[in-house]
Specification:
It is found in: Membrane. One of its GO terms (biological process) is macroautophagy. One of its GO terms (cellular component) is cytosol. It is a single-pass type IV membrane protein. This protein has 225 residues and is mainly α. It contains 4 helices and no strands. It has one domain: Methane Monooxygenase Hydroxylase, Chain G, domain 1.
Length: 225
Amino acid sequence: MDTSPTALFESYEQDFRQFIETIQEKLEDNGGNDKEKRKSNLRRVQMELEEADEMVSQMEIEIQGIPQSVRAQYHSRLRSAKADLSKHKKLLADAQAQLARSDLLSSSNNAYPSSDEPYGPSSDRTRLLAGTALLEEGSKRLQQSQQIALETENQGADILMNLRTQREQIENSRNTLQQADLAIDRASGTLKKMVRRMYQQRAITIGIISVLVLLIIVIAWEKLS
C-alpha cells in the first residue's frame, strides 16, 4: 500500500467525492409528501457531511508533507473540496429550514382550524401571527445550531493547527537526529583513518629500527672479525 502524502491525499479526496455524490442524491430526493422520509434523508446527509468534513481535515494534514514542487495543484484541489463542502452545508441548512417551515405551517393549520370570524381565536390573522411566531422561533434555533457548528469548526481548525505544529516539530527533530548520525559517521570514519595511519607509522618505525639493529650487528661483526 502506497503511504506517500500524495497517495493518502488522493485517497481522502476520492472518499470525499463519494460522500458528496451520495449527499447530492439525498438532497435531490425530496421524498414526495413523506416528511418522515425527508427528515431521515436530511439526518443521513448531516452525518455524511460530518464524514466529508473529516476527509477535508485529513487532506489538510497530508498536504503539509507533499513536496513544494507539486503542492500548488493539491492546494487548488483542497480549495475546491472546501467550496463543495460549504455549498452542500448551505444546501442542507436550506433544506432543513424549508422542512421546519413546512412543519410549522402544518402545525399551525392543525392547531387553528379555519373560521369565518375575522378577529376570533381561529381567524386567519390569528393563525398567521401564530405561524409567524413559530417560524421565528424555528429560525432562532437554526441560527443557534449554525453558531454551534461554526464554533465546532473553529475548534477543529485549532486542533488541526496544533497537530500540524507538532508534526513540524517532530520532523525538525528527525532532521536534527539525521544530521547528528551523519556527523557521528564522519567522525567514526576519521578515527578509523587515524588508527590505520598510526599502525602504518608503527610498522615503518619497527622496520627502521630493525634495519638499524641489523646494520649495527653487521658493523660490530666486521670490527670483531
